[in-house]
Amino acid sequence: MKRLSMLVALAAMVSLALIAGCATKPPSPAQIAAVACPSINAGVTLLKTFNAEMAAVPSSAGFATKAQADLTKYAPTIDAVCAAGATVTATNLSALKTQALPALGSIVGALPLTAAQQMQAQTILVAAETAMGLVGVVEQQIAAAKAAPVSASSAANP
Fold first, then answer.
1. Residue 154 placed within a domain
2. Which range is the signal sequence, renumbered to this chain (predicted)?
């Protein structure tokens, strides 16, 4: 639990540093992933561990089967951003934010976890969601850049 608290605190500090250091320019998708992915990967690992425990108990095996199906379904979305060597784009960050993170939250809510286990999983996901909150900023920056007219000096100096 102490390690988890330190991980969450570290993710929060890095998030704040990125936000503070980006007063003029929002963080890149890769920077957001660098902050969010440690928490997301920790959350997935934790859910897999809890899920394995639940699968071993006949009364919760049904929950575990559904949770495993959901984890498998969203693994490609998570891996597109958080796997080693992934090419992170605003599009796959957005999919992670709008599809995979809500699914992970649903898994936490569906598994019959103890209060301590549920709190542990929620804490990890909240840290990831905090970092992912920056995704909208990046999307707005990209849209603004696409909408901005090209100036004559920019066109003349490629």
1. no
2. 1-20
